[in-house]
Amino acid sequence: MRNSVAAVIVSVSLGGCTAGVATYGFSPNLEPIPGSITYRGQPRTKLTKAPVGSIVPHEFRDQFGRRVSEIYVIQPDRSLRLVSRRRQTFDFFDDD
Question: What is the pLDDT of residues 16-38, one digit of tens each?
Fold first, then answer.
């Protein structure tokens, strides 16, 4: 009985972990928006010192004043690929 309860708890916990990744906003086909690093194409400077696969975070405010957080990954050709975007809709405790 204890083993079956433990197995259910573990499976529910692990199920929540995989669902969390999907809700974070990872998408293979995100398009850049105004304010994104890659909005008008790739940056002119190549990221030569950062290892391939490194994560590059970027935060800015969109045209509506919402805070936007994006995550880029450095590709083997040193370009940036946008993999995640989150928009914060409310700034209750923001001092900016």
Answer: 333 333 334 455 678 999 999 99
Short-list 31, 44, 35, 40, CA closest to 81: 31
SS3 state at 20: helix
CA torsion, ordered 14, 20, 22, 24, to nearest 10 deg: -160
Greatest C-alpha distance within the chain: 62
Does the predicted TM-score (pTM) go above 0.70?
no
What type of residue is 92?
F
Burial of 72 (0-12, 13-18, 19+ CB in 10 A): buried
Structure-token pair, residue 65: 């004043």
Q: Measured between alpha carbons, how far is 74 from 79 in angstroms, rounded to an integer?
A: 6
CA-to-CA distance for 21 and 13, rounded, in angstroms?
Answer: 13
